[in-house]
Protein backbone atom coordinates (compact mmCIF):
# COMPACT_ATOMS: atom_id res chain seq x y z
CA UNK A 1 0.00 0.00 0.00
CA UNK A 2 2.72 2.47 0.97
CA UNK A 3 4.64 2.29 -2.33
CA UNK A 4 1.44 2.94 -4.29
CA UNK A 5 0.55 5.89 -2.05
CA UNK A 6 4.01 7.35 -2.62
CA UNK A 7 3.56 6.78 -6.38
CA UNK A 8 0.24 8.67 -6.28
CA UNK A 9 1.86 11.47 -4.31
CA UNK A 10 4.59 11.63 -6.94
CA UNK A 11 1.89 12.06 -9.61
CA UNK A 12 0.47 15.09 -7.80
CA UNK A 13 3.96 16.54 -7.39
CA UNK A 14 4.60 16.09 -11.12
CA UNK A 15 1.25 17.70 -11.94
CA UNK A 16 2.20 20.72 -9.82
CA UNK A 17 5.68 20.84 -11.36
CA UNK A 18 4.33 20.86 -14.91
CA UNK A 19 1.51 23.35 -14.18
CA UNK A 20 3.41 25.70 -11.87
CA UNK A 21 4.83 27.56 -14.86
CA UNK A 22 1.35 28.96 -15.56
CA UNK A 23 1.19 30.57 -12.11
CA UNK A 24 4.47 32.43 -12.22
CA UNK A 25 3.98 36.17 -11.88
CA UNK A 26 5.72 37.04 -15.14
CA UNK A 27 3.59 34.54 -17.07
CA UNK A 28 0.32 35.77 -15.53
CA UNK A 29 1.28 39.36 -16.28
CA UNK A 30 1.87 38.43 -19.91
CA UNK A 31 -1.72 37.17 -20.27
CA UNK A 32 -3.59 39.63 -18.04
CA UNK A 33 -4.67 43.08 -19.19
CA UNK A 34 -5.47 44.60 -15.80
CA UNK A 35 -1.94 45.17 -14.60
CA UNK A 36 0.78 43.50 -12.65
CA UNK A 37 -0.92 43.81 -9.24
CA UNK A 38 -3.53 41.13 -9.98
CA UNK A 39 -0.87 38.91 -11.50
CA UNK A 40 1.25 39.33 -8.39
CA UNK A 41 -1.69 38.59 -6.09
CA UNK A 42 -2.65 35.40 -7.93
CA UNK A 43 0.95 34.18 -8.09
CA UNK A 44 1.49 34.90 -4.40
CA UNK A 45 -1.77 33.16 -3.53
CA UNK A 46 -0.75 29.96 -5.31
CA UNK A 47 2.66 30.04 -3.65
CA UNK A 48 1.05 30.52 -0.24
CA UNK A 49 -1.20 27.49 -0.75
CA UNK A 50 1.79 25.21 -1.33
CA UNK A 51 3.85 26.86 1.41
CA UNK A 52 6.60 28.39 -0.73
CA UNK A 53 6.87 31.73 1.13
CA UNK A 54 7.39 29.92 4.43
CA UNK A 55 9.89 27.53 2.85
CA UNK A 56 11.90 30.32 1.23
CA UNK A 57 11.88 32.36 4.41
CA UNK A 58 13.12 29.50 6.59
CA UNK A 59 15.56 28.11 4.04
CA UNK A 60 17.67 30.80 2.39
CA UNK A 61 19.10 30.29 -1.08
CA UNK A 62 22.47 29.17 0.26
CA UNK A 63 20.79 26.70 2.61
CA UNK A 64 18.65 25.32 -0.22
CA UNK A 65 21.75 24.77 -2.33
CA UNK A 66 23.40 22.99 0.58
CA UNK A 67 20.40 20.72 1.18
CA UNK A 68 20.09 19.85 -2.51
CA UNK A 69 23.82 19.17 -2.71
CA UNK A 70 23.70 16.76 0.23
CA UNK A 71 20.65 14.94 -1.14
CA UNK A 72 22.23 14.73 -4.59
CA UNK A 73 25.50 13.28 -3.32
CA UNK A 74 23.79 10.82 -0.97
CA UNK A 75 21.26 9.46 -3.48
CA UNK A 76 23.52 7.18 -5.61
CA UNK A 77 24.92 5.53 -2.47
CA UNK A 78 21.50 5.35 -0.82
CA UNK A 79 20.13 3.51 -3.85
CA UNK A 80 22.88 0.86 -3.90
CA UNK A 81 20.94 -1.74 -1.84
CA UNK A 82 17.99 -1.34 -4.22
CA UNK A 83 20.30 -1.96 -7.16
CA UNK A 84 21.56 -5.19 -5.60
CA UNK A 85 18.04 -6.41 -4.84
CA UNK A 86 16.83 -5.51 -8.33
CA UNK A 87 19.75 -7.47 -9.78
CA UNK A 88 18.77 -10.47 -7.63
CA UNK A 89 15.07 -10.12 -8.44
CA UNK A 90 14.16 -9.44 -4.80
CA UNK A 91 13.32 -5.73 -4.90
CA UNK A 92 10.03 -5.04 -3.13
CA UNK A 93 9.90 -8.20 -1.04
CA UNK A 94 8.82 -8.16 2.60
CA UNK A 95 12.12 -7.17 4.16
CA UNK A 96 15.62 -6.22 3.19
CA UNK A 97 17.22 -8.74 5.50
CA UNK A 98 16.75 -11.68 7.79
CA UNK A 99 13.92 -10.76 10.14
CA UNK A 100 15.46 -12.74 13.02
CA UNK A 101 18.96 -11.31 12.81
CA UNK A 102 18.20 -8.08 11.02
CA UNK A 103 21.04 -8.82 8.59
CA UNK A 104 21.14 -9.12 4.82
CA UNK A 105 23.25 -11.70 3.02
CA UNK A 106 25.27 -9.12 1.08
CA UNK A 107 25.98 -7.17 4.26
CA UNK A 108 24.85 -3.80 2.86
CA UNK A 109 22.10 -3.22 5.42
CA UNK A 110 22.20 -4.60 8.97
CA UNK A 111 19.45 -2.74 10.75
CA UNK A 112 16.73 -4.88 12.31
CA UNK A 113 13.25 -4.32 10.95
CA UNK A 114 14.38 -2.23 7.96
CA UNK A 115 11.44 -2.63 5.63
CA UNK A 116 11.86 -2.54 1.87
CA UNK A 117 8.65 -0.65 1.31
CA UNK A 118 9.72 2.22 3.55
CA UNK A 119 13.15 2.21 1.98
CA UNK A 120 11.73 2.34 -1.54
CA UNK A 121 9.44 5.18 -0.51
CA UNK A 122 12.53 7.28 0.21
CA UNK A 123 14.20 6.11 -3.01
CA UNK A 124 11.10 7.32 -4.89
CA UNK A 125 10.98 10.58 -2.94
CA UNK A 126 14.60 11.41 -3.73
CA UNK A 127 14.70 10.05 -7.26
CA UNK A 128 11.34 11.23 -8.57
CA UNK A 129 9.38 13.67 -6.40
CA UNK A 130 12.41 15.87 -5.62
CA UNK A 131 13.98 15.60 -9.09
CA UNK A 132 12.63 18.90 -10.43
CA UNK A 133 13.27 20.94 -7.24
CA UNK A 134 16.84 19.66 -6.92
CA UNK A 135 17.83 20.14 -10.57
CA UNK A 136 16.07 23.50 -10.85
CA UNK A 137 17.85 24.72 -7.73
CA UNK A 138 21.17 23.73 -9.27
CA UNK A 139 20.32 25.53 -12.52
CA UNK A 140 19.35 28.67 -10.63
CA UNK A 141 22.97 29.14 -9.57
CA UNK A 142 23.88 30.27 -13.10
CA UNK A 143 20.86 32.53 -13.69
CA UNK A 144 21.91 36.17 -13.35
CA UNK A 145 19.75 39.26 -13.85
CA UNK A 146 20.51 42.48 -15.73
CA UNK A 147 22.39 43.88 -12.72
CA UNK A 148 24.77 40.91 -12.71
CA UNK A 149 23.28 39.48 -9.54
CA UNK A 150 21.75 36.07 -8.96
CA UNK A 151 18.10 36.15 -9.95
CA UNK A 152 17.16 33.95 -6.97
CA UNK A 153 19.40 35.80 -4.50
CA UNK A 154 20.04 39.49 -5.34
CA UNK A 155 22.52 39.78 -2.46
CA UNK A 156 25.00 37.59 -4.35
CA UNK A 157 27.05 39.09 -7.19
CA UNK A 158 27.60 36.85 -10.18
CA UNK A 159 31.30 36.09 -10.50
CA UNK A 160 32.00 36.55 -6.80
CA UNK A 161 33.67 33.90 -4.65
CA UNK A 162 30.33 32.99 -3.08
CA UNK A 163 28.80 32.57 -6.51
CA UNK A 164 31.73 30.42 -7.64
CA UNK A 165 31.29 28.13 -4.61
CA UNK A 166 27.55 27.82 -5.28
CA UNK A 167 28.10 26.96 -8.95
CA UNK A 168 30.80 24.42 -8.04
CA UNK A 169 28.48 22.78 -5.52
CA UNK A 170 25.68 22.65 -8.09
CA UNK A 171 27.91 21.05 -10.73
CA UNK A 172 29.26 18.43 -8.34
CA UNK A 173 25.77 17.69 -7.06
CA UNK A 174 24.43 17.29 -10.59
CA UNK A 175 27.29 14.92 -11.50
CA UNK A 176 26.27 12.61 -8.66
CA UNK A 177 22.50 13.01 -8.91
CA UNK A 178 21.54 13.41 -12.55
CA UNK A 179 22.66 10.00 -13.93
CA UNK A 180 21.25 8.07 -10.97
CA UNK A 181 17.89 9.82 -10.81
CA UNK A 182 17.45 9.99 -14.59
CA UNK A 183 18.49 6.51 -15.68
CA UNK A 184 18.69 4.39 -12.52
CA UNK A 185 15.41 5.21 -10.78
CA UNK A 186 13.16 4.31 -13.77
CA UNK A 187 14.54 0.77 -13.72
CA UNK A 188 14.21 0.47 -9.94
CA UNK A 189 10.55 1.51 -9.90
CA UNK A 190 9.77 -0.92 -12.72
CA UNK A 191 11.38 -3.86 -10.90
CA UNK A 192 9.85 -3.05 -7.51
CA UNK A 193 7.53 -5.99 -6.72
CA UNK A 194 5.65 -4.04 -4.06
CA UNK A 195 4.65 -1.33 -6.55
CA UNK A 196 1.57 -1.59 -8.77
CA UNK A 197 1.64 1.95 -10.22
CA UNK A 198 4.78 1.63 -12.32
CA UNK A 199 5.74 3.01 -15.72
CA UNK A 200 7.71 2.01 -18.74
CA UNK A 201 11.31 3.03 -18.08
CA UNK A 202 11.65 5.02 -21.30
CA UNK A 203 8.58 7.09 -20.43
CA UNK A 204 10.02 7.97 -17.01
CA UNK A 205 13.27 9.14 -18.63
CA UNK A 206 11.29 11.30 -21.09
CA UNK A 207 9.21 12.83 -18.28
CA UNK A 208 12.27 13.68 -16.19
CA UNK A 209 13.89 15.41 -19.16
CA UNK A 210 10.69 17.34 -19.77
CA UNK A 211 10.63 18.52 -16.17
CA UNK A 212 14.28 19.49 -16.42
CA UNK A 213 13.68 21.52 -19.59
CA UNK A 214 10.70 23.32 -18.03
CA UNK A 215 12.65 24.03 -14.86
CA UNK A 216 15.56 25.39 -16.85
CA UNK A 217 13.40 27.62 -19.02
CA UNK A 218 11.46 28.90 -16.00
CA UNK A 219 14.78 29.83 -14.43
CA UNK A 220 16.24 31.71 -17.40
CA UNK A 221 13.29 32.91 -19.53
CA UNK A 222 11.45 35.22 -17.17
CA UNK A 223 10.66 38.54 -18.87
CA UNK A 224 9.08 40.05 -21.97
CA UNK A 225 9.27 38.05 -25.22
CA UNK A 226 11.23 35.33 -23.39
CA UNK A 227 8.01 34.29 -21.67
CA UNK A 228 6.57 33.29 -25.05
CA UNK A 229 9.34 30.72 -25.45
CA UNK A 230 8.58 29.34 -21.99
CA UNK A 231 4.84 29.13 -22.71
CA UNK A 232 5.31 27.53 -26.13
CA UNK A 233 7.66 24.85 -24.83
CA UNK A 234 5.41 24.21 -21.82
CA UNK A 235 2.36 23.65 -24.02
CA UNK A 236 4.33 21.38 -26.34
CA UNK A 237 5.76 19.24 -23.52
CA UNK A 238 2.45 18.86 -21.66
CA UNK A 239 0.61 18.04 -24.88
CA UNK A 240 3.20 15.42 -25.77
CA UNK A 241 2.95 13.81 -22.33
CA UNK A 242 -0.84 13.60 -22.64
CA UNK A 243 -0.61 12.13 -26.15
CA UNK A 244 2.01 9.60 -25.05
CA UNK A 245 -0.11 8.48 -22.08
CA UNK A 246 -3.25 7.94 -24.17
CA UNK A 247 -1.47 6.40 -27.15
CA UNK A 248 1.11 4.10 -25.56
CA UNK A 249 -0.29 3.50 -22.03
CA UNK A 250 3.10 3.62 -20.24
CA UNK A 251 1.58 2.85 -16.82
CA UNK A 252 0.73 -0.77 -16.01
CA UNK A 253 -2.44 0.42 -14.26
CA UNK A 254 -4.40 1.50 -17.29
CA UNK A 255 -6.75 3.91 -15.49
CA UNK A 256 -3.74 6.04 -14.52
CA UNK A 257 -2.99 6.59 -18.23
CA UNK A 258 -6.37 8.26 -18.70
CA UNK A 259 -5.85 10.47 -15.66
CA UNK A 260 -2.43 11.81 -16.60
Mean pLDDT: 77
Low-confidence stretches: 95-114
The number of distinct helices, counting runs of at least 4 residues, comes to: 12
Radius of gyration: 20 Å
Distance linking N and C termini: 21 Å
Reading the helices and strands in chain order gives: HHHHHHHHHHHH
**Proportion of strand residues:** under 5%
Structural class: mainly alpha
Main sheet: strands, sense, barrel:
none
Helix content: 55-70%
* Shape type: globular
Count of strand segments: 0
Please describe the topology of this protein.
Elements: H1 2-19, H2 25-31, H3 36-49, H4 52-58, H5 61-78, H6 80-88, H7 116-129, H8 131-139, H9 161-191, H10 201-220, H11 226-248, H12 254-259
Describe the structure.
Helices cover 68% and strands 0% of the residues. The chain has 12 helices and no strands. 28% of the residues are buried.
List keywords for this structure.
single chain, mainly alpha, 260 residues
Quickly describe the structure.
This protein is mostly helical and 260 residues long.
Amino acid sequence: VLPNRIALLALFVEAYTLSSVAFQENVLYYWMEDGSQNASNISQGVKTVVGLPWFQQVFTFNVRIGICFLLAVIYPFFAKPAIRMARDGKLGEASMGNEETGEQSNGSIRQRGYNTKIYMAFVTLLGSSLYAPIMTTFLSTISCDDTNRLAQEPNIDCGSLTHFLLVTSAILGAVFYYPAATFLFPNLQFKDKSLDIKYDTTYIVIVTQGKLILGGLATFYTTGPEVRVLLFVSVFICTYFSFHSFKFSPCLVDVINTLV
